[in-house]
Amino acid sequence: MTATQKKMTAIALGAMTITGFAGDVLYSCPGKISDKTAGWKFIPSANPGGQVYNQAEGYYPDKGGQLLGPSIPASRNEFEFYLLSFDAKAPADCYWGVFFNDKNGKMLVPDVYSNVYGGKDKQHYEQVIYGRENAAGIQPFLQSVKGIEVWDMQLKPISAKDAAEWCDRLYQTLPPLSYTPPADRLKLLPKTVDAMQTGKPWRVVMLGDSIINDTFNSNFQSLLMRDYPKADLKFICSVRGSTGCWYYQEPEHFKSYVTDLKPDLLIIGGISHKDDIGAIRKVIEMTRKQIGCEILLMSGPLDEDWRLHDEKKPDADVPAQTWTPNPFAGKQQQLAEELHIEFLDTAAAWHNYLGQSGKPWQWFNRDRVHGNDRGKQIVGRIIESYFKL
Fold first, then answer.
1. Where are the beta strands (DSSP E) in the chain?
2. Residue 150: CA count within 13 A, CB half-sphere
3. Which domain holds residue 24?
4. Are residues 145 and 231 in the same domain?
5. How many CA atoms lie within 13 A of 100 on its CB side?
6. How many domains does the chain fold into?
7. CATH at residue 346
8. pTM summary value
9. Per-residue model confidence as pLDDT tens digits over 137-196
């Protein structure tokens, strides 16, 4: 993707004005922001050029030094949407994100990570984030190996309607999704469908790894709230970096990551199961026995960009290519059919889209395996399509 394309995408996202609730601006920091700005500090790279551990992502190449902002008191509703806006300039692609803190100041595991695009000019960003259960504070950060400048940051709550419109704006900049969900979908989730249609309070717990964290951060929640205006859905992100059911099947972990969160619908997903279909089976059986909630098993989207490309022309469009399905996704589907639970093949939907997109290699990625806002938006649209009747 060229610098001009990146700039145009950032401007397109920033061009839409979104209005929050009257008088609600949770944080405003005009002017240039640095480690000299009140509440901000610089945290050097933990292992320059090497591997680092992030509790929500696992072990991945170091993303550079971090300019970390203050913990901003969140609004009263934990399950709120927020608009984070700022200007930034960086010599190369890098990152923006937010951490969430509980009432005691302890950082929650689920976070938000996405791209700041490199270029010579300052670019404007308007980013929507969905709150976390038990989050009393929201802490923004910028992170880069080669440096980054940032100005004029603001955070405010917005409505689900505004969040959905932000998703629409982003989606309009992407190749359209041509995914048709199975006609018999949701037949095994009758209570969830009823809750979405009638407004019965419903807790949706998403269990998995950093890929599930990215899926959660697609803001698909706002799209479902628009599709089902009566719905009273609360989405809970229960993740641990590079972790799958081989970990969650242990009784103490199952209690912390599943039972204690009281799901009405448990979504199991991600790409970190180590091909351990037996562990997935065990988590499903434990859920049925100990909780009795509805269950959706989901094959993993995102992951590495597998398409053949010209390494000498990384910004060039990539010809359409056909994805070779991962056998493990087939095993997951067989397990779901055997145990009579709902199955969403997000892997096939995502990789078929990627193969036909024609966009440059890693255009949908912020790093080797994780999605940027473009990649996350497509995953969110797949989920919306599946749940929309």
1. 27-33, 41-43, 51-54, 58-61, 65-68, 72-73, 81-89, 94-101, 112-116, 123-130, 137-144, 149-158, 201-208, 232-239, 265-268, 294-298, 342-344
2. 31
3. 3-167
4. no
5. 23
6. 2
7. 3.40.50.1110
8. 0.93
9. 999 999 999 999 999 999 999 999 999 999 999 999 999 999 999 999 999 999 999 999
